[in-house]
Design goal:
The protein is α+β, with helices and mostly antiparallel strands. The protein folds into 4 domains: 190 residues, Arp2/3 complex 21 kDa subunit ARPC3 (Orthogonal Bundle), CATH 1.10.1760; 109 residues, PAS domain (Beta-Lactamase); 110 residues, PAS domain (Beta-Lactamase); 174 residues, Alpha-Beta Plaits, CATH 3.30.70.270. Helices cover 53% and strands 18% of the residues. It has 20 helices and 18 strands. A 6-stranded mixed beta sheet has the order 14-15-13-16-17-18, with helices on both faces. Strands 4-3-7-6-5 form a 5-stranded antiparallel beta sheet, with helices on both faces. Strands 9-8-12-11-10 form a 5-stranded antiparallel beta sheet. α3 packs antiparallel against α4, α4 runs antiparallel to α5 and α17 packs across α18.
């Protein structure tokens, strides 16, 4: 009996030794994944199988057993085919080496144990078997332990009283080995996970630490040590903020921690940090309380992010914004910005003061269309017909999407120039300038230019167009006729015996006489497009667009009548009063087009025909011979 217990304990010790060696001897090679790791498991458990086979124990007369099946089955169950086959081969070689009558039964037991282990390996859910899987595996090993002896034994002399203890021993040993290895595998998995977590925490660029309820550091990463200006993490453990910061800073940190404990939820605070060496920093701090299994707060997880650079940028940006706002407020131009939807997003005070009648609407959030409609409705923008308001606003909004410059008057007499500059994002900047002074100067210059232009084209004595203006009008009218836009008639007028009038009454009276003739000619004009001119000396002309020969004759007769009715004395004329001779030439609409000089020549020919016929009459031009149409001596 003593030899039984000694052998059983020795076999169990070897099994435990192999498992302990595998669990605690953490050589790098044993942690390598893949076939090489499985091979090492097979070799280790194979050595264990040799060990237990070297110390068999007797459970009945002539019946010796060992725990080789436990070693082989466990190796296959945990390590898979490679580990199971290697262990089985090592055990089989050693059993053949031992020899004896039980070689065949021993080899059969090795094969059965390896098969059971491999089947269990195939069906287990994870690398580390569960308790249920370990129990099933141990039961299978126990059940299969007697199979070789039952099949290969020539006699059944070994009864239940021998096999049952053997099966029990195999069951207990296999269960012990499987549970021990499963626990070790789980421990290694936890260690690996913890190592990964620790590596992640240590690799974080942000400070992460854990404190107990008294504020003592119980864990920290290197970033925390760097933030707190200490040599390493070990320096922090067991100490509080009061050991590293000025008292008022540490006390403020303590108050924030108590706030997190009372809230029982994570909080985020921005904190100003001052070190003992006088340096300062800003932190964005997350404080998250954590609890034990009973739900009691036992500590605080703190995540600190250094936002010093961000704070400095914010301060610099605030200062820059303030300076920019001051600069924009002081400039003489109005500045406004609209987004891609043409909604006002920014404007300076100068812009609002330019448009005082709608200043209440010129604020961020107001649509450009609403501003324009209100400005028209309140009478700020002028010169827009009521029926064209919508069309005008649409056009103005379209201009905001394109670069350009627009000038417009306001109701108070001021002129505004707006310069639009779109951005690639679809928004636009508009710069508004008060150009009232420049515009008034421009209008004065334009008025002066208009007056100069009138003076340049006006005869100083009669107020009619001068010869230069007459020539220009004639060219334009001939071109119009050439385009088929109506006819044209021309009256050439000459004051009868004007030289005698000057010689008799003097040049002053002659000038007054010409003015009176010009007034009569101007009074004969019937259409705004008619144009009277002084052709030269006492000769004048009347250009009549869209007028045929018959109408031109009527106008010429009317002129002669008006002049005679003035009864201006003229002793040098056989009629006794001032009269005039008129030549008429006309181009019908759709007829052949001639040059302006040719039409003037025709009218002049008709004029000389009228003079030759006794003056004080009107004569038209005819290709064959002139004829006197009207002659009246009154």
């Amino acid at each position: 009996m003593n030899s039984l217990w000694i052998g059983l304990l020795a076999n169990t010790a070897i099994v435990a030794l192999v498992i302990s060696f595998w669990s605690n001897l953490r050589l790098a090679a044993f942690d390598r994944p893949g076939a090489f790791h499985r091979l090492e498991i097979g070799c280790l458990f194979g050595m264990g199988a040799i060990g237990v086979m070297s110390i068999p124990f007797q459970i009945s007369e002539g019946f010796f057993i060992d725990l080789r099946m436990t070693m082989i089955g466990t190796a296959a169950f945990i390590g898979g085919p490679v580990a199971g086959v290697v262990t089985a081969l090592v055990a089989a070689i050693f059993r053949i080496y031992l020899g004896g009558a039980g070689v065949l039964i021993g080899l059969a037991g090795i094969v059965v144990a390896a098969a059971v282990g491999l089947i269990g390996y195939r069906f287990k859910a994870a690398e580390a078997p569960s308790i249920k899987e370990s129990v099933i595996f141990a039961l299978a090993m126990a059940a299969s332990s007697s199979v070789p002896s039952l099949i290969l034994s020539l006699d059944n002399s070994s009864g239940l009283h021998i096999r049952l203890p053997f099966m029990t021993i195999v069951f207990l040993a296999s269960l012990m080995a499987s549970l021990a290895i499963a626990n070790e595998l789980r421990r290694r998995e936890i260690d690996q996970r913890n190592h990964m977590y620790r590596h992640v925490i240590d690799s974080l660029p942000d400070a992460l630490n854990v404190k107990d309820r008294e504020g003592r550091f119980i864990m920290a990463n290197p970033a925390t040590a760097e933030l707190m200006h200490v040599d390493g993490v070990c320096t922090l453990i067991g100490k509080t903020d009061f050991d590293f910061y000025p008292a008022e800073i540490a006390a403020a940190f303590k108050l924030d921690e108590e706030k997190a404990y009372r809230a029982a939820v994570p909080i985020v605070e921005e904190q100003e940090l001052a070190h003992l060496d006088g340096t300062k920093a800003y932190l964005s701090t997350l404080k998250a309380p954590f609890t034990d299994a009973d739900g009691q707060c036992i500590g605080l997880i703190t995540h600190n992010r250094d936002i010093t650079d961000k704070k400095r940028l914010e301060v610099a940006l605030t200062q820059s914004d303030r300076r920019a706002a001051e600069a924009l407020s002081s400039i003489s131009d109005g500045l406004v910005m609209f987004d891609k939807d043409l909604t006002l997003v920014f404007c300076n005070e100068r812009y609002r003061s330019m448009f005082s009648m709608t200043a209440d609407l010129r604020v961020p959030g107001t649509a450009a269309a609403a501003i324009l409609y209100a400005s028209i409705a309140r009478g700020e923008l002028i010169g827009i017909p009521q029926e064209q308001v919508a069309q005008w606003v649409e056009a103005a909004l379209s201009r905001l999407r394109e670069a350009g410059t627009v000038q417009f008057p306001l109701s108070d007499g001021r002129w505004i120039e707006s310069r639009t500059r779109p951005t690639p994002e679809g928004s636009c900047f508009v710069i508004c300038s008060d150009i009232t002074a420049a515009k008034q100067h421009e209008l004065k210059l334009q008025d002066m230019n208009d007056k100069l232009s009138v003076l340049a084209e006006t005869d100083g004595l009669t107020g009619l167009r001068n010869r230069r203006a007459f020539d220009a009008v004639m060219v334009q009218e001939i071109e119009r006729v050439g385009r088929g836009e109506g006819g044209l008639a021309l009256l050439m007028v000459d004051v009868d015996y004007f030289k005698r009038f000057n010689d008799t009454y003097g040049h002053g009276a002659g000038d007054r006489c010409l003015k009176a003739v010009a007034d009569c000619l101007r009074a004969s004009v019937r259409n705004p497009t008619d144009s009277a001119a002084r052709y030269g000396g006492e000769e004048m002309a009347l250009v009549l667009p869209d007028t045929d020969e018959k109408a031109a004759l009527a106008i010429a007769e009317d002129f002669c009548r008006r002049l005679r009715e003035l009864h201006i004395p003229h002793s040098g004329s056989h009629i006794g009063i001032v009269t005039a001779s008129v030549g008429v030439a006309a181009l019908p609409s759709g007829g052949p087009v001639i040059k302006a000089t040719r039409l003037v020549s025709r009218a002049d020919e008709a004029l000389y025909a009228a003079k030759g016929a006794g003056r004080n009459g009107v004569k038209t031009w005819e290709p064959s011979r002139p004829r006197i149409v009207h002659s009246d001596i009154a």
